[in-house]
């Protein structure tokens, strides 16, 4: 985990190497489409991303492609303090 | 998440890195860890908890719900080449099965170790018979593998 400077702003995650403009355009066209917006398939390369993270008392930055060579499990979930 | 945390050692022994991701900020992750998760499992969640506030990552992976502004329960298993080998996406009210995740990791690792020469049939667990796909197996699975092996 790379160190993350803790300021008053709220850093967020994003796809690696994707221009911000394109991301915004996609957001517009895919609004109100429900949960399945990208046709991600097994056998595809996992899209790379970078995101701020909390681990063991520290804040840091995680980049998926730094973990090539290892098995990785991504667990998305609805939110902290939810019940299940 | 506490359930995954409680099996972290087992997953690490299999060489698996875990990242959890939600739209909560990393600050909220800290509060959840300090105030709840650490009381559910000793030491709390040991793996990095990622923050995806605007749903940028969830959107790419097809698990972000635009209407509700949250990410569905999506679990993606990625191999050392960065290829997605398995995923499972569920709506919020039902939790995942960590034992099934571990079983899938073991099965995919076994298949990879054999360079794909062996396949793991339904319900396969280490020690159970695998199948060796090839011309000789066509129409003969009923001889090589019994349904009872799936359970």
Describe the structure.
Chain A is of the alpha+beta class. Chain A has one domain. Helix content of chain A is 12%, strand content 27%. Chain A contains one helix and five strands. A four-stranded antiparallel β-sheet of chain A has the order 1-4-3-2, with no helix packed on it. In chain A, a hairpin with a 2-residue loop joins strand 3 and strand 4 (58-63). The model of chain A has no long low-confidence stretch (mean pLDDT 81). Chain B has 151 residues and is α+β, with helices and mostly antiparallel strands. Chain B has a domain at 2-89: 3-Layer(aba) Sandwich (Glutaredoxin), CATH 3.40.30.10. Helices cover 34% and strands 18% of the residues of chain B. Chain B contains six helices and six strands; from the N terminus they run ααβαβαββββαα. Chain B has helices at residues 2-6, 8-13, 26-40, 56-60, 98-113, 141-144, and strands spanning 16-22, 49-51, 64-65, 70-71, 73-78, 84-90. In chain B, strands 1-2 form a two-stranded parallel sheet. In chain B, strands 3-4 form a two-stranded antiparallel sheet. In chain B, strands 5-6 form a two-stranded antiparallel ribbon. In chain B, helix 3 (26-40) links the parallel strand 1 and strand 2 (49-51). The model of chain B has no long low-confidence stretch (mean pLDDT 95). At the A-B interface, strand 2, helix 1, strand 3, strand 4 and strand 5 of A face strand 1, helix 3, strand 2, helix 4 and strand 3 of B.
């Amino acid at each position: 985990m790379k160190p993350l400077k803790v300021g008053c702003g709220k850093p967020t995650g994003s796809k690696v190497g994707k221009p911000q403009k394109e991301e915004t355009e996609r957001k517009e066209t895919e609004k109100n489409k429900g949960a399945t917006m990208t046709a991600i398939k097994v056998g595809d390369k996992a899209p790379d991303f970078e995101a701020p993270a909390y681990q063991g008392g520290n804040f840091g930055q995680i980049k998926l492609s730094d973990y090539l060579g290892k098995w990785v499990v991504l667990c998305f979930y609805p939110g902290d303090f939810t019940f299940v | 998440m506490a359930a995954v945390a409680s099996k972290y050692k087992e997953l690490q022994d299999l060489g698996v890195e875990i990242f959890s991701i939600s739209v909560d900020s990393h600050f909220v992750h800290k509060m959840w860890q300090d105030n709840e998760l650490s009381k559910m499992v000793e030491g709390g969640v040991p793996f990095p908890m990622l923050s995806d506030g605007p749903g940028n990552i969830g959107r790419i992976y097809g698990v972000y719900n635009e209407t509700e502004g949250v990410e569905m329960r999506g679990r993606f298993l990625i191999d050392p080449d960065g290829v997605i080998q398995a995923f499972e996406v569920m709506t919020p009210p039902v939790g995942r099965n960590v034992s099934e995740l571990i079983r899938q990791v073991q099965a995919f690792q076994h298949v990879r170790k054999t360079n794909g020469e062996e396949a793991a049939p339904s319900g396969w667990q280490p020690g159970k018979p695998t199948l060796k796909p090839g011309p000789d197996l066509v129409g003969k699975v009923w001889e090589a593998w019994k349904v009872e092996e799936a359970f």
